[in-house]
Write a structure and sequence with these properties.
Layout lengths: L1 H15 L7 H12 L13 H12 L13 H13 L3
Helix pairs in contact: 2-4, 3-4
């Protein structure tokens, strides 16, 4: 019985978890369009995708000081964070 309950719980967790892969190429395009005017990618060297996501989301939400108001979708933020963290620049 314990095995059945454990298996059911694991299946439920896996079934409700949605993993969406960020698009690194779209992130590169958005960085070139929005960020590269003022920032050099070396500004964020070694930063992880979660770190970059939090930083960018903070700017978009107005919680992190930034000279320009940014309007980015959640997907844009994910894509930019993935691109920067990938080191593919």
């Amino acid at each position: 019985m314990r095995t059945i309950v454990s298996s059911a719980a694991l299946a439920l967790c896996c079934a409700t978890t949605v993993t969406v892969a960020a698009d690194v190429a779209a992130g590169k395009a958005k960085v070139q369009q929005v960020c590269s005017e003022c920032h050099d990618l070396s500004d964020w060297k070694g930063k992880s995708a979660p770190e970059m996501h939090d930083k960018i989301a903070g700017v978009v939400a107005g919680k992190t000081k930034h000279p320009k108001k940014l309007q980015l979708s959640d997907a844009d933020i994910d894509n930019i964070a993935a691109y920067i963290a990938s080191g593919a620049h």
